[in-house]
Write a structure and sequence with these properties.
By secondary structure, the protein is mainly beta. 9% of the residues lie in helices and 27% in strands. It has 1 helix and 22 strands. The strands form 6 sheets. The chain has an 8-stranded mixed β-sheet with strand order 13-14-15-17-19-20-21-22, with no helix packed on it.
């Protein structure tokens, strides 16, 4: 299409020819205007067309037929929009166009809308490189991009895609792997609970019975394990108290070993030196100070309620109830010397 040029342009600097030049220019202006309008119309049509091809919304390769003789070319970015609802559209790059038949092929990399339509408007758009911008639809690989959590939300991210499969994670819960499924949660449960395996999974459980206590690396070099064990001992060194209420009531003890529930459990304010007492209630109830000194009582209730010093009682109830105040007795066997 050619736009004609004017033969002459009127100029007031040439007053002698101005009138004739103006007549000539006016005679040519109509043809020039028509040519310019035609060129403008042709340019607009070159990058816009319509189609009645049946096309389904989605990404990937699409083909449709528009008008022939348009200006679409390979590499051009276009919008393929629903004629009825233009906001439902696909952004694509032209891969082929036959100006003789109007056949247009394009690769769609972003689609908003659903279903299959037969009324489309195709027009050129500003080039958008999906490698540089996040598109509203379709699969994309992002490289060196920053997503601000303050203004963006990623929801429903599965474990396979690097997420948890959960919308929220309960505060202070422990997370458990679950293959490709949503991560599991274990609540803390009761205070003092521990994470326990049942061979298949984990749970918050009450721990097995344990001894509470302390071992002194320095003076008084004592070990106290068990609720109430040796709790009243205020002076003395080198003692071992193991068991609930073992040595309960002693205020002074030296180099003694008291092991067992209520072993050497006595009235308050008693003392004990160099005694070995092993067994539940062994050497219990020696109410007077120093009446367990240098004694050995092994067995449940061995030396129970006995006031003898430097004695040996081995066996169930052996040497129990010996309150004569004598020393150096030896009772071996169940109920021996009772």
């Amino acid at each position: 299409m050619t736009i004609p040029t004017f033969t002459v342009v009127p100029n007031t600097a040439s007053p002698s020819t101005f009138s004739s030049d103006m007549d000539s220019w006016l005679s040519e202006i109509a043809a020039w205007t028509a040519a310019v309008n035609a060129a403008g119309t042709a340019f607009a049509l070159a990058v816009q067309g319509t189609s009645t091809s049946s096309v389904t919304f989605g990404t990937g390769a699409k083909t449709l037929t528009v008008q022939a003789g348009l200006g679409f070319s390979v590499g051009m970015d276009v919008v393929i929009a629903s004629t009825a609802t233009p906001t439902d559209r696909m952004l694509a790059t032209v891969t082929a166009y036959n100006s003789g038949t109007g056949a247009l092929a394009a690769t769609v990399w972003s689609a908003v809308g659903s279903g299959t339509l037969t009324a489309w408007t195709v027009s050129m758009t500003t080039a958008i490189d999906p490698a540089q911008f996040v598109t509203p639809d379709g699969s994309q690989t992002l490289t060196n991009k920053t997503i601000s959590g303050a203004s963006n939300t990623i929801s429903g991210l599965t474990v396979a895609s690097g997420g948890t499969g959960r919308a929220t994670l309960t505060a202070n819960n422990v997370l458990l792997g679950n293959g490709t499924g949503a991560v599991g949660l274990v609540a803390p449960g009761t205070s003092g609970n521990v994470l326990t395996s049942n061979g298949t999974t984990w749970a918050s459980s009450t721990p097995s019975a344990v001894l509470d206590g302390v071992t002194n690396a320095g003076s008084p070099y004592s070990t106290k394990l068990g609720a109430g064990a040796g709790t009243a001992v205020a002076s003395g060194v080198g003692n071992v108290f193991v068991g609930v209420d073992a040595g309960l009531g002693m205020t002074t003890a030296n180099d003694s070993v008291i092991i067992g529930r209520n072993a050497a459990n006595n009235a308050s304010n008693v003392t004990c030196t160099n005694a070995v007492v092993i067994g539940a209630y062994a050497k219990s109830n020696f109410a007077a100070s120093n009446t367990a000194n240098y004694s050995v009582a092994i067995g449940s209730y061995a030396g129970f309620d006995s006031a003898e010093v430097q004695s040996v009682a081995i066996g169930h109830y052996a040497g129990s109830n010996q309150n004569s105040g004598s020393a150096a007795s030896v009772c071996v066997g169940a109920f021996a010397g009772q």
